[in-house]
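so im writing up the methods section and need the VOC family protein record in one place, dumping it here so i stop losing it
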Amino acid sequence: MTTQFTAPKKLGVSFDFDHQSLVVTNLMKTGDFYKDVFDFEEIPHPERKPGFRWFNIYGNSQLHLIKKDVIEFKKDKSIHLCLAVKNLEGFIERLISKNIDFYDWPGNKGSVTDRADGVKQIYIQDPEGYWIEINTAKH
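--- predicted struct ---
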């Protein structure tokens, strides 16, 4: 199942979310993080080129890691990948078992943010410093 976005009626088109790409310096370590922590299925790059690791997130939605030697931009928490889970407490237990720190939105370690709409959320960082939000939003 893919998430479909309907554009304004004046465009007369709809979009499916396809993938998120992240540029990384340590392809193996970062790819192993996403595979191990999120249990994403690794899928082959269509051209089998070196320097890429692709993962299936859900349905046809994918995460693409692209190796570059230098990445120069600030990895701010406001720029993040967000994944929704049904059992946040179970996922937090998984993080704790893997010694992965998690934070609420203000940055308090080991805390969960309770949004005004009832959604709970936490943030973690991958080995490259990218932020990932995990929340309980229903889709």
